[in-house]
Amino acid sequence: MLVSLTVGKVDAGVAVLLTEDKRLIEFPSILLPPDIASGSIVDITVARNHKSESAAASAFHALQSDIFRTFGQRTPSAPILRCRNATQTSVVLEWDPIDIATAELRSLTLYRNGSKAGTIPKPTEVHSTKLSGLAVDTEYTFHLVLRTSAGTYSSEKLKVQTHKMTDLSGITITPGHMNATLRESLQKTVDRIGAKVVDTVRIDTTHFVCTEGRGPAWEKAVENNIPVVVPDWVKGCEREGRIVGVRGYYLNADPRLRQIGPGQGQPQPQQQQQPPQQQSITSPRTEITPPTPERPTHEKEQDDEAAPPPPPPPKDDEEDSDDDEAPPEPKMQPDEQKVRTEDMKPGADESEDDESEEEDEAEGSANAKAAEAGLPVRPNPGQQAKVEDEGDDASFQEVQL
Asked: Which stretches does the entry tag as region Disordered (predicted)?
């Protein structure tokens, strides 16, 4: 196709071309002949290059196929989470090596009960982790989340139940330096309680048992903060029937700190049987008074229930009855003690005399104050009785017999 155009203006890099219908076309001036100026007419031939178009399309399809074969056929896989070991307060989780295919790894995160527990460092190298500080006999739910440039992939949720204090199956022991006899005894004890023994210190090792603190295994246990205890700790767990504290079973710990109690299968120590004489010991505060020998106790109780209580006798009768009292009955030891304590108390007559004297003094002072104030004075009944007695005496003297 041949097109004739008129050069309108030529600039440094762009030339303005005019069509026959007065339209402007900006055309690179470097493609025009060098002697072109304003007003020149140029012929431009335009044609479709089918050969070049086919070559470009073929190259583009080859590139797309190469990208698909490299990145589109394999995708990252979701991680598979497992429980390696569980104790009363810790859980060890492990998973298969992650497969991110041709994608780029972003992060690998562990979740506990739906909340983020932490990010796994070096996920391509680390394939297990340990969680401590958990509650005893409690169920937890864990899952992993893998984030890559090709998308996010989550593992299936794993439910783990921590052990009870009486469940010793989660104990994993790594033995250290000890004699052969002690090691054999330790192996038998571990088999009886249902625990495990591993030769090397691993992430699921719960206790390192030895009698001497030396060797590379001991150094690794100390580095990983694994409790280093003596073989007696395993014996203590078997005896108690539950996991016991390690404070008193460290290598340099005082044996007196060990809390040793009877096991579950052992009977409680019975108290020593004392002879019958020592068993029937009465309290020193209990006083036993025998009944009066004159009449039986049950007859007295029947008489008391049948007859109503007699009225209290007058004072004169009481005085007479005191003179005519029968000889005292023989008293037992508790009665004699009571009599002795009563002898030490002041008599009733003396206390009454003291009280009467105090009342007379109080009334005398009250009468003196009333006389000073000009108020009528009320005579004391005791004084009035004395005056009457004196008058009777005077009248008695006047009588002639």
From this structure: 256-401
Pair of tokens at residue 230: 């003596």
Instruction: Give me the pLDDT at residue 29, please.
Output: 87
Digit-coded pLDDT (tens) for 282-319 = 434 444 445 545 555 444 444 444 455 555 554 444 44
Q: Determine contact, residues 182/211, Cβ cutoff 8 Å.
A: yes
In one-letter notation, the amino acid at residue 184 is E
Please calculate the CA angle 385-387-393 and round it to the nearest 5 degrees.
105
pTM: 0.52
- Quick one: fold of 172-257? Rossmann fold (3.40.50)
Q: Which residues contact 93 (CB under 8 A, 6 or more apart)?
A: 81, 82, 83, 84, 110, 128, 129, 130, 131, 142, 158, 160
Residue 326 has pLDDT above 80, yes or no: no
Instruction: Report CA 394 to chain centroid distance, whole Å.
Output: 99
Tokens of 376: 């009528």
d(C-alpha 265, C-alpha 239), whole Å: 9
Average pLDDT of every residue of the chain: 76
Cβ neighbourhood burial of 83 (10 Å; 0-12, 13-18, 19+): middle
